[in-house]
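Please decode residue identities from the backbone states below.
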């Protein structure tokens, strides 16, 4: 019997960058009665709140105490403190300003060279490259673009594979991972999901075999692949419907 269910977020429990559906929210809440639940994603803390936590219907402090947020690929970890009734940051491993500047200029240069710098398609005030403290994220069409538009931009990852390959030539000291629908996450080596998952084991005092992981990008080069490589049992899903289907099976409900 697994003790921990760990989930990638974008495209695994939601439609990329949108709040989870009522169905997923309901299933996650039920999971909190039986498992430690650990979403891990490249996104920031506030997005975990908007997309997951705020969607849970009347969770008890006890239920929330079993929800563990592995933010920015697990380079930040937040836990709910039932006595204070608030989320507390347990650890944080940010990038330095020099690293952020170097990555930002590298990705912009690579994307411009390849003709994939889509500044003209941005919504007002939106940005292509975002500093997420522990990682820098390229989102080709910005944060505010529509879902359909995002899906259509690079469905076969080819544009992002090219950008990532060029970045690796320009600044090989960083890692570039294709994620979500239009994103590339840049981190320092090892600061990917393997970092977060190793810390998850430590923080929750569990063994690798206690964990079941769900992800949509488990192929080599995908942002869930480091978890597969570490030897975690993994369920590859296409979307949140697949995840809901699997969770219904795990929870034994039809
Ligand atoms: Mg994903």
């Amino acid at each position: 019997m697994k003790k921990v269910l760990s989930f990638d977020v974008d495209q695994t429990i939601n439609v990329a960058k949108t709040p989870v559906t009522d169905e997923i929210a309901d299933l996650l809440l039920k999971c909190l009665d039986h498992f430690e639940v650990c979403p891990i994603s490249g996104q920031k803390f506030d997005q975990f709140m908007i997309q997951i936590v705020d969607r849970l219907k009347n969770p008890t402090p006890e239920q929330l105490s079993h929800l563990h947020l592995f933010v920015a690929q697990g380079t930040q970890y937040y836990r709910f403190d039932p006595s204070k009734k608030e989320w507390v940051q347990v650890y944080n491993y940010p990038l330095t300003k020099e690293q952020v500047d170097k990555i930002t200029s590298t990705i912009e240069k690579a994307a411009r060279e390849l003709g994939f710098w889509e500044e003209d398609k941005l919504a007002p005030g939106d940005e292509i490259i975002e500093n997420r403290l522990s990682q820098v994220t390229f989102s080709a069409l910005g944060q505010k673009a529509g879902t359909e538009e995002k899906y259509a931009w690079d469905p076969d990852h080819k544009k992002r594979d090219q950008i990532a390959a060029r970045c690796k030539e320009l600044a090989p000291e960083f890692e570039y991972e294709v994620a979500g629908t239009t994103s590339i996450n840049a981190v320092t080596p090892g600061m990917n999901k393997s970092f977060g998952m190793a810390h998850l084991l430590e923080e929750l005092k569990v063994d690798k075999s206690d964990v079941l992981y769900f992800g949509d990008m488990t192929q080599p080069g995908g942002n869930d692949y480091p978890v597969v490589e570490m030897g975690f049992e993994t369920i590859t899903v296409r979307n949140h419907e697949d995840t809901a289907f699997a969770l219904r099976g795990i929870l034994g409900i039809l």
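Observation: The longest helix spans residues 97-113.
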